[in-house]
Fold these 2 entries.
Entry 1:
Amino acid sequence: MKKLLIFTFSLITSLSLASGFDPLDPYANITVTWDFLQQSESTSDVKVSIYNFQQFRHVDRPGWKLGWRWQGDEVIWNMWGAEAIYQGNCSRFKGAPERPHCCEMEPVIIDLLPGTPFNKQFSNCCKGGELSSMVQDSSKFLSAFRMNVGAFSNNSTNINMPDNFTLGLPGYTCGPPVQVQPTKTSQDGRRWTETLETWNVTCMYSQFRASPSPKCCVSLSSFYNSTIAKCPRCSCGCQGLPGAKCVKPGDELQLPGERETEEPSPLVTCTRHMCPIGIHWHVKESYKEYWRVKITITNYNFVKNYSDWTLVVQHPNLQSLTQLFSFNYHPLGQFGNINDTGMFWGIKYYNDMLLSTGKNGNVQTEMVLHKDEGVFTFREGWTFPRRISFNGDECVMPSPDEYPRLPNRAHRAAASRPSIVVFTSLLILAAL
Ligand SMILES: *[C@@H]1O[C@H](CO)[C@@H](O)[C@H](O)[C@H]1NC(C)=O
Ligand SMILES: *[C@@H]1O[C@H](CO)[C@@H](O)[C@H](O)[C@H]1NC(C)=O
Ligand SMILES: *[C@@H]1O[C@H](CO)[C@@H](O)[C@H](O)[C@H]1NC(C)=O
Ligand SMILES: *[C@@H]1O[C@H](CO)[C@@H](O)[C@H](O)[C@H]1NC(C)=O
Ligand SMILES: *[C@@H]1O[C@H](CO)[C@@H](O)[C@H](O)[C@H]1NC(C)=O
Ligand SMILES: *[C@@H]1O[C@H](CO)[C@@H](O)[C@H](O)[C@H]1NC(C)=O
Ligand SMILES: *[C@@H]1O[C@H](CO)[C@@H](O)[C@H](O)[C@H]1NC(C)=O
Ligand SMILES: *[C@@H]1O[C@H](CO)[C@@H](O)[C@H](O)[C@H]1NC(C)=O
Ligand SMILES: *[C@@H]1O[C@H](CO)[C@@H](O)[C@H](O)[C@H]1NC(C)=O
């Protein structure tokens, strides 16, 4: 029966992943808003904004790369706050006093880097394409740039809305542009100008589209049993299979340069699970009314520092989280009836960056939870998480048969007299 339940649960999870729907963040999307600001005789001024409307999935370096397809022979004359990767073939403008910024029919635009000269900036630009999740920093979930668009045939002032938008991020697909109520826009928050036309493009994420294999796995341990439920073998890949590269101690490493525009594919330490990220959940201690969990996130990837990482955990006791060390926390699903799920992330300048393995990369937290009466139990793996995701991607859990179990004799003792454990740990503390 339990097996069946778990099977159904994972089936539901996979189905929801396939369609990109996540009950924890049902409205999750990235919206691209395209504002036609004004039109002169031969050119249009356009403002493009990219909003990350996702609770716990952020956009990390190397960042978004916004692409679209022009309907006619439009060219981008100038741009502020972003730039096209390629200028393209502008030879048609030979002899013109100024060459356009980009003549590609399918331009790809990237954000500028922090520290860009002021005259090339635009408000909310220049973050290297990074977008924060809404929970982590609701002031940094927006990127914007402005451009001046013209058409090659200089008698056509009619610039059409382009189509076929892409974000250049794995796993995201964008719908067609939809014309919406024009918005007023402002560069500085003081003066507001009318917009001629506004279009929205909605882009959705799907883990299956992003990567066929998972990117993280979970291992479990407890103070009451020395068994460790390890990350399942081949969670993210198998050693020895074709295409599976990994690094053994002493191997020479070829690390990519700093300013790559593509994210390097993971180069992991050789492990049984071959995942770039491992999460360890340790049930550490039991007090009279509380219990303590330690969570460790380890980076096994040599080629990536995970900045602004997030961890989403589902556990029925999270609603009684009493004390948390070294991480930030925010409960999720307040819009629905979910109250057992929350999001953890690092503290700025302290552990918001999960360094690559080469730098001994891991981050840790401990949390104290209240033993809710009639619900709490050490039996049947209740103290272990139901689901964990890292940076918005679901992690592989061990099989429930492998969970460390309460020793049979100790069932009653541990359940009814946890104060013994407190007593011993106090003794240990005193001995230190
Ligand atoms: C995109 O997210 C915003 C903000 O959460 C939401 O209002 C909007 O309905 C979402 N769009 C879609 C198509 O889900
Ligand atoms: C269009 O996107 C903006 C955010 O850029 C959002 O506020 C607005 O609700 C969206 N409109 C529709 C109809 O989805
Ligand atoms: C650039 O476009 C012109 C026509 O506009 C064409 O004659 C020329 O071959 C193109 N050059 C390249 C390198 O594609
Ligand atoms: C643009 O207009 C000028 C003068 O009106 C004309 O000489 C030129 O051929 C036009 N260019 C194109 C590409 O149509
Ligand atoms: C430009 O104007 C000429 C003459 O009015 C017309 O034949 C041509 O189709 C126009 N080009 C475009 C792209 O609208
Ligand atoms: C561009 O989008 C249109 C409709 O949105 C679609 O029919 C077409 O196949 C797309 N083209 C490409 C190259 O993706
Ligand atoms: C990760 O960060 C460390 C310390 O800032 C740096 O030395 C290292 O080169 C970075 N590694 C990668 C892969 O970016
Ligand atoms: C959490 O949800 C469960 C089931 O929906 C409910 O029984 C419980 O009372 C809720 N707890 C809180 C603190 O809202
Ligand atoms: C510890 O847990 C394992 C796995 O569930 C179980 O096989 C074993 O019997 C437990 N150890 C003790 C001492 O109960």
Entry 2:
Amino acid sequence: MTHWCLWILVHLAAGSPCDDRYAAWVTDREAFQRDDEPRYLSGLHVVCVWKEAGTLRLEAHMNGVLEEDPVRSELDGALSLDWGKFRKSLQGVLRFSKATNEWGNFHLKQPYGIFSEAGHRLSSATEVLDAGLVLVVEGGQWFWPPVRIGYVRGLPGTPYMIETVSVQPVVFRVRGFLREEECSVIIDMAESNMSESPVVQMEKHYRDNDTKDFRTSTQARLPSSDSSLLQELDKRISNLTRVDVTHNEEVQVLRYRLGEFYASHTDNFDPEYYQNVAAWPKFSCPEISLELLKDFIDKGHRNRLLTVFWYLTNVSKGGETLFPRADGLPPPEDMNSCERGLKVRPEVGTVMLWYSLRPNGNGDPNSLHASCPVEDGKKWSANYWVWNKPRDFSISLPDADVDEEYSGEQSVALSTVEAGNNVSATFRNEHPFPMYLFWKPPDRAQEAFLGEISPQAAVSMLTFPGHIWHIRIGADQSSELVTAQVITDQPKQVIVLSSDPEPDVDEL
Ligand SMILES: *[C@@H]1O[C@H](CO)[C@@H](O)[C@H](O)[C@H]1NC(C)=O
Ligand SMILES: *[C@@H]1O[C@H](CO)[C@@H](O)[C@H](O)[C@H]1NC(C)=O
Ligand SMILES: *[C@@H]1O[C@H](CO)[C@@H](O)[C@H](O)[C@H]1NC(C)=O
Ligand SMILES: *[C@@H]1O[C@H](CO)[C@@H](O)[C@H](O)[C@H]1NC(C)=O
Ligand SMILES: *[C@@H]1O[C@H](CO)[C@@H](O)[C@H](O)[C@H]1NC(C)=O
């Protein structure tokens, strides 16, 4: 075969110029073991963008798994000039919306993030084209794809190896991340300042129980400003997590003596579950209302994204970190049990990294974890929490200014239709209760949630003839479908949602 024939064959077979780069960024579908959840990583999209004959082309493997039939589309070549338009168009093609998040108050959700393989946040279409392969993360922050259990990747520019120990929850181990001398220095700093570990009571499970049934360690918070070692670790960890240092909390050093433990819990805040936050560090009010807490954490959108857990000593026996929902296991009935689940043995200098949120920003209940009782010796460890938004409220979010998905008229899937045949559809809700608007893509079961229509209010959408809109009674795709509307070719349409069996469509 001549070189020329070979060249044609290779190019016919190739779906995109990124074909040989996907493997490190997509996770095996078989690695998702749970029967009660979708087998993918919600909200992490592996996307290839390239220029061909003057147009931008795109191929996307949605939700972090290799698809037989990935999304393929053309983007307007001129988009490379305007970042805001590029982002909007990309979002239209990938058909996701801020509202994949389950907390409501979508204006508080972070703008989505686009990252190169090196973990750098990209901020122009030219950078995206230069990168070729990019990770689009709906929750806004870098998220390491687990790929499969046992997958090991080097952290570029460093000697550290990141090893996947679980896919659901997403958990990694990095051995030798801290030097033994560093661990000793940290223990010394904390030792003189230990106090009883606080715990935020989970009302749902532990209303009448004393904190002691839940957590029995002692702890010390160490501000980085007091120590050059801690400042260096802030940077080392930020390089590992690919999340800026402004997102981290002061490290919380923990000491577990013989028999001490921490029952299963998650590290992120679920506003519905936490009521008495008196014990929460930095909160001194004895009674703080649920409403205030919801506001403080941006109604759930400002939250702990991930934990980097430091092992500062070896433990002779016990003291493992337990993930009771790993390996597809059901939620444990007894939060104090260390019998079932993935157990990680403490090893001085090793850190574990796990995600408490999914890539789309929702809480991941699989991230439930415990510290099993120490059976021999003592355990020193530390919690290092990284949030999905900067801790300082005055720092603005990157791309917030170009992300106007929820203001004014909204557009979807612009690239799938011809220019100029757009339609303005107004949905008017005459019911005394809110209704919820979803766009039903023609080729996918997953609907795009576009927002709430308040009682007696109207929402206008830029849409196209043939588009299908679903009106549901809840903000979740599983809630009851009230009606499905197919857009006609009238340039302006008003769809009135009332108690009539069939909604009225006024064609103006
Ligand atoms: C991490 O550090 C290495 C070595 O300094 C550097 O090459 C790399 O760009 C850093 N990565 C990020 C995401 O900051
Ligand atoms: C230790 O605790 C004392 C009293 O609570 C405090 O004044 C001091 O700043 C703390 N030191 C460190 C290193 O945290
Ligand atoms: C309190 O803890 C005990 C023992 O751990 C448990 O049996 C009981 O159900 C708990 N009470 C509540 C209200 O959860
Ligand atoms: C800790 O345990 C590891 C193996 O589990 C061992 O290689 C290392 O030497 C131990 N370190 C100390 C200080 O005991
Ligand atoms: C909608 O169509 C009009 C022409 O009917 C055109 O001027 C306008 O640019 C279109 N808008 C979009 C966003 O496609």
